[in-house]
From TrEMBL:
CC terms in the record's Gene Ontology section: plasma membrane
Record-linked InterPro entries: AAA+_ATPase, ABC_transporter-like_ATP-bd, ABC_transporter-like_CS, P-loop_NTPase, Siderophore_ABC-ATPase
GO terms under biological process: iron ion transport
Record domain ABC transporter: where: 21-258
Subcellular localization, as worded in the UniProt entry: Cell membrane
Protein name, UniProt field: Iron complex transport system ATP-binding protein
Membrane spanning stretches: none
Compositionally biased region (Basic and acidic residues): 272-288
Classification lineage: Bacteria, Bacillati, Actinomycetota, Actinomycetes, Micrococcales
Protein's membrane topology: Peripheral membrane protein
A molecular-function term among this protein's GO annotations: ATP binding
Cited PANTHER family: IRON(3+)-HYDROXAMATE IMPORT ATP-BINDING PROTEIN FHUC
Length: 307
C-alpha cells in the first residue's frame, strides 16, 4: 500500500487480539528541530511490525517515543486500555512495555545473570522475595538467547554479539506484552541473526507479544514482519504487508538507489536486492574466469573503466 499522506496507520486486519500500543499523530523534536512529523502506527498483539527507512528517517526516535523515552511535542502514545502512557507509574509501564535500544552503557564487574536480573526490576519491591517468578523468567530468558553458559562471566568481557544477546535476555526477563527492538541484529553473526528473527516470530505467534522492530536489512523485515512501516524524512511513506511495502518503486524512491525486488520461489516473500552502481561492471573474478570483460572474450586487455 502506497500513500502520500503524512500519517498512515497500519491497516487493521481481522484480528482477535486488538492493538497493544499505538502512537497517534506523533510530532517529535530535538530542541526546536522537529524530526518526526505526525507519524501514526499501531502495534498489535501476536504480530510483528517492522520499521524501515533510510538513516535519519526517524525510526529510533519513533520507537523511543513508544517506549516513553522521548516525549512527543504533540500526539499521544496509548496502550489499549490507557489513553496516554505518560499517566502510568514507571513500574506499571515497565511491566507492559520494554525496549532493546541500540546502545546501553555496559556496567563494569557485573555478572551476566545479574544483568539479566535487571529486567525484573518492575516486579521487585525492596525485597527480591517479592518476585517469585523472577528466577524462572531469568533462566528462561537466558536459555532462549543462548547465554546460559556465560551466566557467571562479567558483561564487560563479552563480545559485541554476546552482549547484544544479554541485553535481549534482559528485555525478555521483563516479560512484557510489548517488545520494542532497535536494530537488534547489530553485532550478531548469521546464526544469531536468524535465531533472533525466529525468537521474535515465536514471541509474537506463541506468546501473543506485540513487537515493534527497527531493521535495516529489508530481507530480515520481509522474513519476520507481518506489517511494515516505511519511514522517510520523519513521515510514514507507506505501511502494509511486506508485499505491499517492499516494492522496487517505493524502495528505489526512498533509498535513492535502484532496489530490485523478486518473489522468493518457495516462500513467496519479497527478496530485495539493492543494486550497486557497479553491478554491470566486470569484476576481477569475471576477467580471470573468462566472464564479461575477460581476456578470452575481448579483443584486447581489459581497460580501466572511468567512474
Ligand atoms: N540526540 C539527538 N539530538 C539531536 N538530533 C538527533 C538526536 N538523535 C537523532 N537526531 C536527529 O533526528 C533525526 C532522526 O534520527 P533517528 O535516529 O530517529 O533516525 P533513524 O531512522 O533511526 O536513523 P538510523 O537509521 O541512522 O539509526 C535525524 O535527523 C537525527 O540527526
Amino acid at each position: 500500500m502506497d500513500s502520500s499522506e503524512t500519517t498512515v496507520e497500519t491497516p487493521r486486519r481481522a484480528d482477535p487480539h486488538g492493538y497493544a500500543l499505538s502512537g497517534r499523530d506523533l510530532h517529535l523534536a530535538y530542541g526546536s528541530n522537529e524530526v518526526v512529523h505526525g507519524v501514526g502506527l499501531r502495534l498489535t498483539r501476536g504480530r510483528v511490525t517492522a520499521l524501515i527507512g533510510p538513516n535519519g528517517s526517524g525510526k529510533s526516535t519513533v520507537l523511543r517515543s513508544l517506549a516513553r523515552l522521548h516525549k512527543p511535542d504533540s500526539g499521544t502514545v496509548a496502550l489499549d486500555d490507557v489513553d496516554d502512557v505518560h499517566a502510568l507509574h514507571p513500574k506499571a509501564f515497565a511491566r507492559r512495555v520494554t525496549m532493546l535500544s541500540q546502545s546501553r552503557p555496559t556496567p563494569g564487574g557485573v555478572a551476566v545473570r545479574d544483568v539479566v536480573g535487571f529486567g525484573r526490576h518492575p516486579y521487585r519491591g525492596r525485597l527480591r522475595s517479592s518476585d517469585p517468578d523472577g528466577p524462572r523468567a531469568i533462566a528462561h530468558a537466558m536459555e532462549v538467547t543462548g547465554i546460559t553458559e556465560m551466566a557467571e562471566r562479567g558483561v564487560d568481557e563479552l563480545s559485541g554479539g554476546e552482549l547484544q544477546r544479554v541485553w535481549l535476555a534482559t528485555c525478555l526477563a521483563q516479560d512484557t506484552e510489548v517488545l520494542l527492538l532497535d536494530e537488534p541484529t547489530n553485532h550478531l553473526d548469521l546464526r544469531y541473526q536468524m535465531d533472533l528473527l525466529d525468537l521474535v516470530r515465536d514471541l509474537a505467534t506463541d506468546h501473543d507479544v506485540a513487537i515493534g522492530i527497527v531493521l535495516h536489512d529489508l530481507n530480515h523485515a520481509a522474513t519476520v514482519a507481518d506489517e511494515i512501516v516505511l519511514l522517510h524524512r520523519g513521515a510514514v511513506r507507506a505501511a502494509g504487508t511486506p508485499a505491499e511495502v517492499l516494492t522496487s518503486d517505493l524502495l528505489s524512491e526512498v533509498y535513492g538507489i535502484r532496489v530490485d525486488v523478486h518473489q522468493h520461489p518457495t516462500t513467496a516473500r519479497p527478496v530485495c536486492e539493492p543494486r550497486s552502481r557497479h553491478a554491470d561492471r566486470a569484476t576481477p573474478h569475471d576477467r580471470t574466469a573468462g566472464g564479461v570483460g575477460s581476456a578470452a572474450n575481448t579483443a584486447g586487455p581489459p581497460r580501466p573503466v572511468a567512474v
